[in-house]
C-alpha cells in the first residue's frame, strides 16, 4: 500500500512539473526582437545628388535631404 501511495505521489509531482514547464515557455509571452535590416527602409532606393562635406547628409537632385546612417561608406563619394 505504501508503495502505491509513493508511486501516485511521484506521478502527481512529475505531471505538475511538466504542466508548469509548458506554461512558462509559451511562445506568445516571449518578446521577439526585430533585426536591424527590418527596421531600415523596406525597399532599395536609387538616388543621385551630392554628399555634404561632413559625409552625414546627402542632398538629392530635388533638394531633399537624407541622413546617412553609415558616413564611412560615403568617404569615396565626396
What does this entry look like structurally?
The chain contains two helices and three strands; from the N terminus they run ααβββ. It is α+β, with helices and mostly antiparallel strands and 78 residues long. It has a domain at 43-78. The chain has a three-stranded antiparallel β-sheet, with no helix packed on it. The longest helix has 23 residues, at 2-24. The relative contact order is 0.09.
Derived structural class:
alpha+beta
How many helical stretches?
2
The gyration radius over C-alpha positions equals 30 Å
Q: Tell me, what's the shape?
A: rod-shaped
Order of helices and strands: HHEEE
Query: Which percent bin holds the helix content?
Result: 25-40%
Distance between the termini: 88 Å
Overall mean confidence score, pLDDT: 79
Query: Unreliable stretches, pLDDT < 50, 5 or more residues?
Result: none
Strand content of the residues, in percent? Answer: 5-15%
How would a textbook summarize the main sheet? Answer: 3 strands, antiparallel
**Number of strand elements:** 3
Instruction: Give me the side-by-side strand order of the main sheet.
Output: 1-2-3
Amino acid at each position: 500500500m505504501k508503495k502505491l501511495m509513493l508511486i501516485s505521489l511521484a506521478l502527481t509531482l512529475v505531471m505538475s512539473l511538466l504542466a508548469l514547464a509548458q506554461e512558462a515557455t509559451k511562445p506568445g509571452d516571449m518578446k521577439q526582437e526585430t533585426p536591424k535590416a527590418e527596421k531600415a527602409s523596406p525597399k532599395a532606393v536609387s538616388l543621385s545628388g551630392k554628399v555634404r562635406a561632413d559625409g552625414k547628409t546627402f542632398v538629392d537632385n530635388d533638394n531633399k535631404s537624407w541622413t546617412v546612417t553609415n558616413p564611412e561608406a560615403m568617404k569615396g563619394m565626396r
